[in-house]
Write a structure and sequence with these properties.
The complex is a heterodimer of chains A (305) and B (257). With 305 residues, chain A is an alpha/beta fold. Chain A folds into two domains: 3-160, 3-Layer(aba) Sandwich (Rossmann fold); 184-303, Rossmann fold, CATH 3.40.50. In chain A, 25% of the residues lie in helices and 29% in strands. Chain A has helices at 18-28, 55-58, 63-77, 90-101, 203-212, 221-225, 256-262, 291-303; strands spanning 3-6, 9-10, 13-14, 32-38, 49-54, 81-85, 104-109, 111-113, 116-121, 126-132, 137-141, 157-160, 169-175, 189-193, 216-219, 246-250, 267-272, 285-288. Chain A has a seven-stranded parallel β-sheet, with helices on both faces. In chain A, strands 15-14-16-17-18 form a five-stranded parallel β-sheet. In chain A, β14 (189-193), α5 and β15 (216-219) form a beta-alpha-beta unit. The longest helix of chain A is centred in the first third of the chain and has 15 residues, at 63-77. Chain A is elongated. Chain A starts with a strand and ends with a helix. Chain B is α/β, with parallel strands linked by helices. Chain B has one domain (2-209): HUPs (Rossmann fold, 3-Layer(aba) Sandwich). Helix content of chain B is 28%, strand content 30%. In chain B, the strands form two sheets. In chain B, strands 9-8-7-10-6-1-4-5-11 form a nine-stranded mixed β-sheet, sandwiched between helices. Chain B has a two-stranded antiparallel ribbon with strand order 2-3. In chain B, β8 and β9 (166-172) form a beta hairpin. The chains are: A alpha/beta (305), B alpha/beta (257). Chains A and B meet through α4, β7, β9, β10 and β13 of A and α4, β7, β8, β9 and β12 of B.
Protein backbone atom coordinates (compact mmCIF):
# COMPACT_ATOMS: atom_id res chain seq x y z
CA UNK A 1 0.00 0.00 0.00
CA UNK A 2 1.16 3.53 -0.72
CA UNK A 3 1.66 5.53 2.47
CA UNK A 4 2.02 9.18 3.40
CA UNK A 5 3.90 9.46 6.71
CA UNK A 6 3.24 12.48 8.92
CA UNK A 7 6.41 13.27 10.88
CA UNK A 8 6.39 15.41 14.01
CA UNK A 9 8.31 18.42 15.12
CA UNK A 10 8.13 20.17 18.49
CA UNK A 11 9.84 23.10 20.10
CA UNK A 12 12.26 23.50 17.25
CA UNK A 13 13.17 19.83 16.95
CA UNK A 14 12.23 16.87 14.79
CA UNK A 15 10.80 14.05 16.96
CA UNK A 16 12.27 10.55 16.80
CA UNK A 17 8.89 8.89 16.24
CA UNK A 18 9.25 9.34 12.45
CA UNK A 19 11.40 6.18 12.38
CA UNK A 20 8.38 4.19 13.64
CA UNK A 21 6.33 5.56 10.74
CA UNK A 22 9.04 4.32 8.35
CA UNK A 23 9.02 0.92 10.06
CA UNK A 24 5.27 0.74 9.46
CA UNK A 25 5.69 1.73 5.80
CA UNK A 26 8.24 -1.02 5.37
CA UNK A 27 5.88 -3.58 6.91
CA UNK A 28 2.98 -2.34 4.77
CA UNK A 29 5.12 -2.47 1.61
CA UNK A 30 4.86 -0.09 -1.34
CA UNK A 31 5.96 3.48 -1.90
CA UNK A 32 5.96 6.13 0.77
CA UNK A 33 6.26 9.88 1.00
CA UNK A 34 6.58 12.06 4.07
CA UNK A 35 4.96 15.26 5.34
CA UNK A 36 6.47 17.58 7.91
CA UNK A 37 5.73 20.97 9.33
CA UNK A 38 9.24 21.65 10.55
CA UNK A 39 12.43 23.22 9.39
CA UNK A 40 14.92 22.73 6.60
CA UNK A 41 17.80 22.59 9.04
CA UNK A 42 16.50 19.45 10.80
CA UNK A 43 15.31 16.91 8.23
CA UNK A 44 14.42 13.26 8.85
CA UNK A 45 16.73 10.50 7.58
CA UNK A 46 14.27 9.45 4.90
CA UNK A 47 15.22 8.49 1.39
CA UNK A 48 12.02 9.58 -0.34
CA UNK A 49 9.95 12.62 -1.14
CA UNK A 50 9.36 15.03 1.74
CA UNK A 51 6.69 17.72 1.64
CA UNK A 52 7.97 20.40 3.97
CA UNK A 53 6.07 23.35 5.39
CA UNK A 54 7.88 25.85 7.56
CA UNK A 55 6.89 25.67 11.23
CA UNK A 56 7.85 29.32 11.70
CA UNK A 57 5.25 30.33 9.12
CA UNK A 58 2.55 27.71 9.73
CA UNK A 59 2.88 27.25 13.49
CA UNK A 60 3.87 24.08 15.34
CA UNK A 61 0.33 23.60 16.66
CA UNK A 62 -2.17 24.96 14.20
CA UNK A 63 -4.44 22.05 13.37
CA UNK A 64 -6.72 23.52 10.68
CA UNK A 65 -3.71 24.86 8.77
CA UNK A 66 -1.81 21.56 9.05
CA UNK A 67 -4.96 19.75 7.92
CA UNK A 68 -5.30 21.93 4.83
CA UNK A 69 -1.64 21.45 3.93
CA UNK A 70 -2.09 17.70 4.26
CA UNK A 71 -5.19 17.78 2.07
CA UNK A 72 -3.08 19.39 -0.70
CA UNK A 73 -0.42 16.70 -0.40
CA UNK A 74 -2.96 13.87 -0.31
CA UNK A 75 -4.52 15.16 -3.53
CA UNK A 76 -1.13 15.14 -5.19
CA UNK A 77 0.30 11.90 -3.81
CA UNK A 78 -2.91 9.84 -3.64
CA UNK A 79 -1.72 7.57 -0.80
CA UNK A 80 -3.80 4.58 0.30
CA UNK A 81 -3.09 5.31 3.93
CA UNK A 82 -1.97 8.46 5.75
CA UNK A 83 0.00 7.45 8.84
CA UNK A 84 0.42 9.43 12.07
CA UNK A 85 1.87 8.57 15.47
CA UNK A 86 -0.85 8.09 18.10
CA UNK A 87 0.45 11.11 19.99
CA UNK A 88 -0.88 14.44 21.17
CA UNK A 89 -0.12 15.77 17.66
CA UNK A 90 -1.42 12.73 15.80
CA UNK A 91 -4.70 12.10 17.58
CA UNK A 92 -5.51 15.81 17.36
CA UNK A 93 -4.82 16.16 13.64
CA UNK A 94 -5.72 12.75 12.19
CA UNK A 95 -9.53 12.97 12.62
CA UNK A 96 -9.53 16.42 11.00
CA UNK A 97 -7.74 15.07 7.94
CA UNK A 98 -9.82 11.87 7.83
CA UNK A 99 -13.00 13.93 7.83
CA UNK A 100 -11.72 16.22 5.08
CA UNK A 101 -10.70 13.18 3.00
CA UNK A 102 -13.94 11.28 3.57
CA UNK A 103 -11.77 8.46 4.87
CA UNK A 104 -12.06 6.04 7.78
CA UNK A 105 -9.60 6.57 10.62
CA UNK A 106 -8.27 3.70 12.69
CA UNK A 107 -6.67 4.79 15.97
CA UNK A 108 -3.74 3.27 17.84
CA UNK A 109 -2.77 0.56 15.35
CA UNK A 110 -0.42 -2.01 16.90
CA UNK A 111 -0.05 -4.47 14.01
CA UNK A 112 -1.15 -5.39 10.50
CA UNK A 113 -2.62 -8.87 10.03
CA UNK A 114 -3.61 -9.86 6.47
CA UNK A 115 -3.33 -6.11 5.79
CA UNK A 116 -6.05 -5.34 8.36
CA UNK A 117 -5.06 -2.94 11.14
CA UNK A 118 -5.16 -4.40 14.66
CA UNK A 119 -6.07 -2.17 17.61
CA UNK A 120 -6.44 -2.67 21.37
CA UNK A 121 -9.81 -2.50 23.15
CA UNK A 122 -10.65 -2.07 26.85
CA UNK A 123 -7.21 -1.07 28.04
CA UNK A 124 -5.53 -3.79 25.92
CA UNK A 125 -7.53 -6.61 27.48
CA UNK A 126 -8.96 -7.35 24.02
CA UNK A 127 -7.92 -6.72 20.45
CA UNK A 128 -9.81 -6.26 17.22
CA UNK A 129 -9.04 -6.37 13.52
CA UNK A 130 -10.66 -3.53 11.63
CA UNK A 131 -12.25 -3.67 8.18
CA UNK A 132 -12.48 -0.36 6.34
CA UNK A 133 -15.05 0.46 3.69
CA UNK A 134 -13.45 3.63 2.29
CA UNK A 135 -10.86 3.65 -0.49
CA UNK A 136 -8.36 5.64 1.55
CA UNK A 137 -7.69 5.45 5.27
CA UNK A 138 -5.92 7.30 8.08
CA UNK A 139 -4.06 5.37 10.78
CA UNK A 140 -2.46 6.48 14.02
CA UNK A 141 0.25 4.11 15.33
CA UNK A 142 0.70 3.16 18.97
CA UNK A 143 4.08 4.38 20.26
CA UNK A 144 6.62 1.57 20.14
CA UNK A 145 4.43 -0.86 18.16
CA UNK A 146 6.52 -0.59 14.98
CA UNK A 147 10.27 -0.47 15.48
CA UNK A 148 12.76 0.02 12.69
CA UNK A 149 15.09 -2.95 12.13
CA UNK A 150 17.96 -0.55 11.56
CA UNK A 151 18.55 3.14 12.04
CA UNK A 152 16.96 4.88 9.03
CA UNK A 153 19.32 6.62 6.65
CA UNK A 154 19.09 8.70 3.51
CA UNK A 155 18.23 12.27 2.75
CA UNK A 156 14.87 13.34 1.41
CA UNK A 157 13.98 15.05 -1.82
CA UNK A 158 12.33 18.17 -0.40
CA UNK A 159 9.32 19.92 -1.92
CA UNK A 160 8.31 23.04 -0.04
CA UNK A 161 4.66 23.77 0.57
CA UNK A 162 2.94 26.64 2.33
CA UNK A 163 -0.25 28.53 2.98
CA UNK A 164 -1.40 32.00 3.99
CA UNK A 165 -4.35 30.74 6.01
CA UNK A 166 -4.71 31.50 9.72
CA UNK A 167 -5.87 28.91 12.19
CA UNK A 168 -8.81 28.94 14.57
CA UNK A 169 -6.71 28.43 17.67
CA UNK A 170 -3.75 30.42 18.89
CA UNK A 171 -0.76 28.52 20.20
CA UNK A 172 1.05 30.54 22.84
CA UNK A 173 3.97 28.37 23.85
CA UNK A 174 5.16 25.39 25.84
CA UNK A 175 5.46 24.81 29.54
CA UNK A 176 8.18 22.42 30.58
CA UNK A 177 7.31 19.40 32.68
CA UNK A 178 7.46 19.95 36.40
CA UNK A 179 10.80 18.76 37.59
CA UNK A 180 11.64 17.75 41.08
CA UNK A 181 14.52 16.09 42.82
CA UNK A 182 13.63 12.60 41.58
CA UNK A 183 15.11 11.34 38.33
CA UNK A 184 13.69 7.83 38.14
CA UNK A 185 15.56 7.12 34.90
CA UNK A 186 18.78 6.97 36.97
CA UNK A 187 17.40 4.43 39.43
CA UNK A 188 18.25 0.71 39.09
CA UNK A 189 15.30 -0.38 41.18
CA UNK A 190 11.84 1.13 41.02
CA UNK A 191 8.77 0.10 42.97
CA UNK A 192 5.62 1.70 41.58
CA UNK A 193 2.19 2.19 43.06
CA UNK A 194 -1.00 1.89 41.00
CA UNK A 195 -4.64 2.50 41.71
CA UNK A 196 -4.78 -0.98 43.26
CA UNK A 197 -3.06 0.29 46.42
CA UNK A 198 -6.53 1.54 47.35
CA UNK A 199 -5.85 4.66 49.39
CA UNK A 200 -3.18 7.35 49.82
CA UNK A 201 -2.06 6.00 53.21
CA UNK A 202 -0.73 2.93 51.40
CA UNK A 203 1.86 4.91 49.42
CA UNK A 204 4.09 4.61 52.50
CA UNK A 205 4.02 0.82 52.21
CA UNK A 206 5.31 1.12 48.61
CA UNK A 207 7.97 3.64 49.62
CA UNK A 208 9.08 1.29 52.41
CA UNK A 209 9.54 -1.61 50.01
CA UNK A 210 11.48 0.65 47.61
CA UNK A 211 13.72 1.74 50.48
CA UNK A 212 14.29 -1.85 51.62
CA UNK A 213 15.31 -2.76 48.04
CA UNK A 214 17.54 0.37 47.92
CA UNK A 215 15.52 1.85 45.09
CA UNK A 216 13.09 4.66 44.40
CA UNK A 217 9.33 4.59 44.30
CA UNK A 218 7.21 5.69 41.37
CA UNK A 219 3.53 5.71 40.48
CA UNK A 220 1.08 5.24 37.65
CA UNK A 221 -1.02 8.07 36.32
CA UNK A 222 -4.25 7.53 38.33
CA UNK A 223 -2.27 7.72 41.58
CA UNK A 224 -0.66 10.99 40.47
CA UNK A 225 -3.96 12.43 39.24
CA UNK A 226 -5.48 11.63 42.64
CA UNK A 227 -2.52 13.54 44.15
CA UNK A 228 -1.40 10.60 46.28
CA UNK A 229 2.08 10.89 44.73
CA UNK A 230 3.69 13.95 43.13
CA UNK A 231 3.93 14.17 39.34
CA UNK A 232 7.73 13.95 39.24
CA UNK A 233 7.43 10.27 40.19
CA UNK A 234 5.00 9.35 37.41
CA UNK A 235 6.06 6.55 35.07
CA UNK A 236 4.53 6.44 31.59
CA UNK A 237 4.17 8.40 28.36
CA UNK A 238 3.24 11.63 30.12
CA UNK A 239 5.70 11.06 32.94
CA UNK A 240 9.14 9.46 32.92
CA UNK A 241 10.37 6.62 30.74
CA UNK A 242 12.46 4.21 32.79
CA UNK A 243 14.54 1.08 32.20
CA UNK A 244 15.75 -0.12 35.61
CA UNK A 245 17.22 -3.55 36.43
CA UNK A 246 14.15 -4.29 38.51
CA UNK A 247 10.67 -2.81 38.21
CA UNK A 248 8.04 -3.83 40.75
CA UNK A 249 4.49 -2.83 39.71
CA UNK A 250 2.13 -2.86 42.69
CA UNK A 251 -1.57 -2.74 41.93
CA UNK A 252 -0.94 -1.43 38.41
CA UNK A 253 -3.31 -2.86 35.81
CA UNK A 254 -1.00 -1.96 32.94
CA UNK A 255 -2.56 0.77 30.79
CA UNK A 256 -0.70 1.12 27.49
CA UNK A 257 0.58 4.54 28.51
CA UNK A 258 2.15 3.03 31.62
CA UNK A 259 3.63 0.03 29.80
CA UNK A 260 5.23 2.37 27.25
CA UNK A 261 7.12 4.00 30.11
CA UNK A 262 8.54 0.85 31.74
CA UNK A 263 8.54 -2.09 29.34
CA UNK A 264 12.27 -1.79 28.71
CA UNK A 265 12.99 -2.71 32.33
CA UNK A 266 15.32 -5.73 32.62
CA UNK A 267 13.12 -7.62 35.07
CA UNK A 268 9.50 -6.89 35.91
CA UNK A 269 7.60 -8.14 38.95
CA UNK A 270 3.87 -7.42 39.04
CA UNK A 271 1.86 -7.74 42.22
CA UNK A 272 -1.85 -7.74 41.54
CA UNK A 273 -5.09 -9.38 42.62
CA UNK A 274 -6.22 -9.65 38.97
CA UNK A 275 -4.43 -12.50 37.23
CA UNK A 276 -5.62 -11.26 33.81
CA UNK A 277 -4.45 -7.65 34.17
CA UNK A 278 -2.48 -6.48 31.07
CA UNK A 279 0.60 -5.84 33.26
CA UNK A 280 0.97 -9.66 33.16
CA UNK A 281 1.96 -9.25 29.47
CA UNK A 282 5.26 -7.62 30.36
CA UNK A 283 5.87 -9.21 33.78
CA UNK A 284 8.56 -11.83 34.32
CA UNK A 285 6.86 -12.76 37.58
CA UNK A 286 3.24 -12.09 38.45
CA UNK A 287 2.43 -12.46 42.16
CA UNK A 288 -1.32 -12.86 42.65
CA UNK A 289 -1.87 -11.52 46.14
CA UNK A 290 -3.50 -8.88 48.28
CA UNK A 291 -1.05 -5.96 48.36
CA UNK A 292 -1.78 -4.95 51.94
CA UNK A 293 -0.72 -8.39 53.18
CA UNK A 294 1.98 -9.27 50.70
CA UNK A 295 3.99 -6.05 50.50
CA UNK A 296 4.66 -5.60 54.24
CA UNK A 297 5.57 -9.32 54.45
CA UNK A 298 7.97 -8.96 51.51
CA UNK A 299 9.48 -5.75 52.94
CA UNK A 300 10.22 -7.45 56.27
CA UNK A 301 11.89 -10.40 54.58
CA UNK A 302 13.93 -8.15 52.27
CA UNK A 303 15.14 -6.16 55.29
CA UNK A 304 16.33 -9.34 57.00
CA UNK A 305 18.41 -10.42 53.99
CA UNK B 1 -24.35 30.35 28.00
CA UNK B 2 -25.30 26.97 26.52
CA UNK B 3 -23.09 23.99 27.13
CA UNK B 4 -23.23 20.41 25.84
CA UNK B 5 -21.37 17.59 27.56
CA UNK B 6 -21.12 14.28 25.69
CA UNK B 7 -20.61 11.22 27.84
CA UNK B 8 -20.40 7.46 27.28
CA UNK B 9 -21.29 4.56 29.49
CA UNK B 10 -18.51 1.95 29.54
CA UNK B 11 -17.90 -1.30 31.42
CA UNK B 12 -15.71 -1.26 34.49
CA UNK B 13 -12.29 -2.03 33.01
CA UNK B 14 -11.59 -4.58 35.75
CA UNK B 15 -14.47 -6.73 34.38
CA UNK B 16 -14.02 -10.24 33.05
CA UNK B 17 -14.70 -9.68 29.37
CA UNK B 18 -16.12 -12.21 26.91
CA UNK B 19 -16.36 -11.89 23.14
CA UNK B 20 -19.96 -11.81 21.86
CA UNK B 21 -21.61 -14.46 19.63
CA UNK B 22 -20.94 -12.49 16.41
CA UNK B 23 -17.26 -12.17 17.37
CA UNK B 24 -17.30 -8.44 16.66
CA UNK B 25 -17.49 -6.85 20.15
CA UNK B 26 -17.42 -7.77 23.81
CA UNK B 27 -20.48 -9.40 25.32
CA UNK B 28 -22.53 -6.79 27.21
CA UNK B 29 -24.04 -9.20 29.75
CA UNK B 30 -22.73 -9.54 33.33
CA UNK B 31 -20.80 -6.28 33.22
CA UNK B 32 -20.83 -3.42 35.73
CA UNK B 33 -21.37 -0.13 33.87
CA UNK B 34 -20.09 3.30 34.78
CA UNK B 35 -19.34 6.71 33.29
CA UNK B 36 -16.30 6.80 31.03
CA UNK B 37 -13.57 8.16 33.29
CA UNK B 38 -12.48 10.94 30.90
CA UNK B 39 -16.10 12.14 30.68
CA UNK B 40 -16.29 12.67 34.45
CA UNK B 41 -13.71 15.43 33.98
CA UNK B 42 -15.78 16.85 31.11
CA UNK B 43 -18.94 16.95 33.27
CA UNK B 44 -17.06 18.50 36.19
CA UNK B 45 -15.54 21.24 34.00
CA UNK B 46 -18.93 22.06 32.48
CA UNK B 47 -20.50 22.34 35.94
CA UNK B 48 -17.62 24.49 37.22
CA UNK B 49 -18.06 26.81 34.25
CA UNK B 50 -21.79 27.07 35.00
CA UNK B 51 -20.95 27.96 38.60
CA UNK B 52 -18.51 30.62 37.38
CA UNK B 53 -20.74 32.18 34.73
CA UNK B 54 -24.24 31.75 36.19
CA UNK B 55 -27.24 31.83 33.82
CA UNK B 56 -25.93 28.78 32.01
CA UNK B 57 -27.71 25.68 30.82
CA UNK B 58 -25.81 22.39 30.66
CA UNK B 59 -27.18 19.52 28.57
CA UNK B 60 -25.65 16.08 29.02
CA UNK B 61 -25.91 13.77 26.00
CA UNK B 62 -25.42 10.01 25.95
CA UNK B 63 -25.97 7.48 23.17
CA UNK B 64 -26.95 3.91 24.00
CA UNK B 65 -29.65 1.55 25.25
CA UNK B 66 -31.97 2.38 28.18
CA UNK B 67 -29.32 1.40 30.76
CA UNK B 68 -27.18 4.45 29.92
CA UNK B 69 -29.80 6.64 31.62
CA UNK B 70 -28.37 5.49 34.97
CA UNK B 71 -25.00 7.02 34.02
CA UNK B 72 -26.75 10.18 32.80
CA UNK B 73 -28.41 10.51 36.20
CA UNK B 74 -24.98 10.70 37.78
CA UNK B 75 -24.11 13.61 35.45
CA UNK B 76 -27.39 15.31 36.37
CA UNK B 77 -26.61 14.77 40.07
CA UNK B 78 -23.17 16.33 39.50
CA UNK B 79 -24.93 19.46 38.23
CA UNK B 80 -25.95 19.15 34.57
CA UNK B 81 -29.41 20.67 33.98
CA UNK B 82 -30.98 18.33 31.46
CA UNK B 83 -30.37 15.03 29.77
CA UNK B 84 -30.61 14.15 26.07
CA UNK B 85 -30.64 10.39 25.74
CA UNK B 86 -30.18 9.08 22.20
CA UNK B 87 -31.84 5.71 22.33
CA UNK B 88 -29.67 3.27 20.40
CA UNK B 89 -29.47 -0.49 20.95
CA UNK B 90 -26.68 -0.67 18.37
CA UNK B 91 -24.38 2.02 19.77
CA UNK B 92 -21.57 -0.34 20.82
CA UNK B 93 -20.58 -1.25 17.26
CA UNK B 94 -21.06 2.16 15.66
CA UNK B 95 -17.87 3.71 14.39
CA UNK B 96 -16.61 7.11 15.62
CA UNK B 97 -17.95 8.86 12.51
CA UNK B 98 -21.50 7.65 13.16
CA UNK B 99 -21.34 8.62 16.84
CA UNK B 100 -19.99 12.08 15.97
CA UNK B 101 -22.62 12.54 13.25
CA UNK B 102 -25.42 11.75 15.74
CA UNK B 103 -24.04 14.34 18.18
CA UNK B 104 -23.50 16.95 15.45
CA UNK B 105 -27.04 16.43 14.13
CA UNK B 106 -28.42 16.87 17.66
CA UNK B 107 -26.31 19.98 18.33
CA UNK B 108 -26.41 21.76 14.97
CA UNK B 109 -29.39 24.08 15.57
CA UNK B 110 -29.16 24.45 19.35
CA UNK B 111 -26.51 27.16 19.56
CA UNK B 112 -24.15 25.56 22.06
CA UNK B 113 -21.28 27.87 22.98
CA UNK B 114 -19.09 25.09 24.22
CA UNK B 115 -19.06 21.31 23.82
CA UNK B 116 -17.12 19.13 26.26
CA UNK B 117 -16.17 15.49 25.64
CA UNK B 118 -13.67 13.10 27.17
CA UNK B 119 -10.50 12.80 25.08
CA UNK B 120 -11.32 9.14 24.44
CA UNK B 121 -13.47 6.31 25.75
CA UNK B 122 -11.97 3.61 27.91
CA UNK B 123 -13.29 0.77 25.76
CA UNK B 124 -12.89 1.83 22.10
CA UNK B 125 -10.38 4.62 22.76
CA UNK B 126 -10.44 6.05 19.24
CA UNK B 127 -10.07 9.62 20.50
CA UNK B 128 -11.90 10.79 17.37
CA UNK B 129 -15.45 11.74 18.34
CA UNK B 130 -14.89 15.20 19.84
CA UNK B 131 -12.68 16.32 16.96
CA UNK B 132 -15.11 14.97 14.36
CA UNK B 133 -18.05 16.80 15.99
CA UNK B 134 -16.03 20.03 15.74
CA UNK B 135 -15.17 19.40 12.08
CA UNK B 136 -18.80 18.60 11.23
CA UNK B 137 -20.04 21.79 12.91
CA UNK B 138 -17.05 23.87 11.77
CA UNK B 139 -16.03 24.77 15.33
CA UNK B 140 -12.57 25.20 16.74
CA UNK B 141 -11.36 22.28 18.82
CA UNK B 142 -8.59 21.71 21.34
CA UNK B 143 -7.87 18.14 22.46
CA UNK B 144 -6.35 16.59 25.58
CA UNK B 145 -6.77 19.55 27.89
CA UNK B 146 -5.40 19.41 31.45
CA UNK B 147 -6.07 23.03 32.36
CA UNK B 148 -9.12 25.17 31.59
CA UNK B 149 -10.00 28.80 32.04
CA UNK B 150 -12.67 31.03 30.49
CA UNK B 151 -12.19 34.78 30.87
CA UNK B 152 -13.57 37.72 28.89
CA UNK B 153 -15.19 35.50 26.31
CA UNK B 154 -12.04 33.57 25.53
CA UNK B 155 -10.92 30.04 26.33
CA UNK B 156 -7.41 29.55 27.65
CA UNK B 157 -6.45 25.91 27.97
CA UNK B 158 -3.36 23.75 28.28
CA UNK B 159 -2.92 20.63 26.19
CA UNK B 160 -0.97 17.72 27.61
CA UNK B 161 1.89 16.59 25.38
CA UNK B 162 4.30 13.71 25.80
CA UNK B 163 6.82 13.75 28.65
CA UNK B 164 4.68 16.04 30.83
CA UNK B 165 5.16 19.10 28.57
CA UNK B 166 2.10 21.34 28.17
CA UNK B 167 1.05 23.61 25.33
CA UNK B 168 -0.83 26.82 26.09
CA UNK B 169 -3.62 27.44 23.58
CA UNK B 170 -6.30 30.13 23.25
CA UNK B 171 -9.46 30.10 21.19
CA UNK B 172 -12.77 31.91 20.97
CA UNK B 173 -16.23 30.34 21.26
CA UNK B 174 -18.02 28.36 20.01
CA UNK B 175 -15.60 25.50 20.50
CA UNK B 176 -15.15 21.84 21.40
CA UNK B 177 -12.67 20.72 24.04
CA UNK B 178 -11.72 17.11 24.84
CA UNK B 179 -10.74 16.44 28.44
CA UNK B 180 -7.75 14.49 29.73
CA UNK B 181 -7.53 12.80 33.14
CA UNK B 182 -6.40 15.12 35.91
CA UNK B 183 -8.08 18.25 34.43
CA UNK B 184 -9.94 18.81 37.70
CA UNK B 185 -11.31 16.78 40.61
CA UNK B 186 -14.70 15.36 39.62
CA UNK B 187 -17.17 15.78 42.48
CA UNK B 188 -19.14 13.01 44.11
CA UNK B 189 -22.88 13.65 43.82
CA UNK B 190 -24.42 14.42 47.22
CA UNK B 191 -27.61 12.72 48.34
CA UNK B 192 -29.75 15.90 48.03
CA UNK B 193 -28.38 16.42 44.51
CA UNK B 194 -29.12 12.80 43.62
CA UNK B 195 -32.71 13.39 44.75
CA UNK B 196 -32.92 16.66 42.77
CA UNK B 197 -31.53 14.94 39.68
CA UNK B 198 -34.51 12.59 39.60
CA UNK B 199 -36.75 15.56 38.78
CA UNK B 200 -34.55 16.90 35.97
CA UNK B 201 -35.55 16.54 32.32
CA UNK B 202 -34.21 13.38 30.66
CA UNK B 203 -35.69 13.01 27.18
CA UNK B 204 -35.07 10.07 24.87
CA UNK B 205 -34.81 10.48 21.10
CA UNK B 206 -34.69 7.45 18.77
CA UNK B 207 -31.30 7.25 17.05
CA UNK B 208 -33.00 6.92 13.66
CA UNK B 209 -34.07 10.59 13.95
CA UNK B 210 -30.44 11.74 14.10
CA UNK B 211 -28.28 9.20 12.27
CA UNK B 212 -27.88 10.25 8.64
CA UNK B 213 -24.47 8.85 7.70
CA UNK B 214 -23.05 5.41 7.11
CA UNK B 215 -20.15 4.05 9.10
CA UNK B 216 -16.80 3.66 7.38
CA UNK B 217 -15.35 0.77 9.33
CA UNK B 218 -16.37 -2.30 11.28
CA UNK B 219 -14.77 -4.87 13.52
CA UNK B 220 -13.82 -7.93 11.46
CA UNK B 221 -13.00 -9.88 14.60
CA UNK B 222 -12.46 -9.33 18.30
CA UNK B 223 -10.28 -11.63 20.39
CA UNK B 224 -8.00 -11.89 23.40
CA UNK B 225 -4.31 -11.22 22.82
CA UNK B 226 -2.20 -14.34 22.99
CA UNK B 227 -0.47 -14.63 26.33
CA UNK B 228 3.21 -14.21 25.63
CA UNK B 229 4.02 -16.88 28.15
CA UNK B 230 7.35 -16.96 29.96
CA UNK B 231 5.94 -14.95 32.82
CA UNK B 232 5.78 -16.98 35.99
CA UNK B 233 2.54 -16.77 37.98
CA UNK B 234 2.86 -17.20 41.75
CA UNK B 235 -0.16 -17.81 43.96
CA UNK B 236 -0.66 -19.02 47.52
CA UNK B 237 0.32 -18.16 51.08
CA UNK B 238 1.74 -14.67 51.50
CA UNK B 239 4.84 -15.67 53.48
CA UNK B 240 5.71 -18.44 50.99
CA UNK B 241 5.20 -16.05 48.11
CA UNK B 242 7.62 -13.56 49.63
CA UNK B 243 10.27 -16.29 50.05
CA UNK B 244 9.78 -17.51 46.48
CA UNK B 245 10.02 -13.99 45.08
CA UNK B 246 13.20 -13.21 47.03
CA UNK B 247 14.80 -16.39 45.70
CA UNK B 248 13.86 -15.44 42.13
CA UNK B 249 15.25 -11.92 42.57
CA UNK B 250 18.52 -13.36 43.84
CA UNK B 251 18.78 -15.86 40.98
CA UNK B 252 17.59 -13.72 38.09
CA UNK B 253 18.57 -10.16 38.97
CA UNK B 254 21.53 -8.54 40.67
CA UNK B 255 19.19 -7.34 43.39
CA UNK B 256 19.67 -8.73 46.93
CA UNK B 257 22.63 -10.78 45.69
Amino acid sequence: MKTLLVAEYRDGKLLGSNSELMAFAEKAGGESAMFLVGTESDLPAFGGKLYLADAGECGEYNPSVHRDLLVQVVEKEQPDVVVFSHSSYGWDLAPRLAYAMGAAQVSEVIDLVDSLPVVPVCNAKLRRNVKISTEKAVYTLQAGAFSPAEVPSGSPEVEKIGTDADGKVIFEGYEAAETGGVDLSKSDIIVSAGRGIGKPENVEMIADLAKALKGEYGASRPVVDAEWVEHNRQVGTTGQTVSPKLYVACGISGAIQHLAGMKKSDFVVAINTDKDAPIGEVADVLVVADLKQFIPALTEKVKSQ
Amino acid sequence: MKILVCIKQVPDMESKFKVNGEGNWYDSSDLAWRMNEYDEYAVEQAVQLKEQEGDTDVTVLCIGPARVKETMKKALAMGCDRGAHIDDEGSATRDPLEIAAIIAEFAKDKGFDLIFTGMQSQDRASGQVGVLVAEMLDLSCVTTIVDFSFQAGELQVKRELEGGVRARVRTSLPAVVTCQLGLNTPRYPTLPNIMKAKKKELLSTPVADLLKVEGRQETASMYFPEKKGGGLVLEGDVADLADQLIKILKDKTGVLA
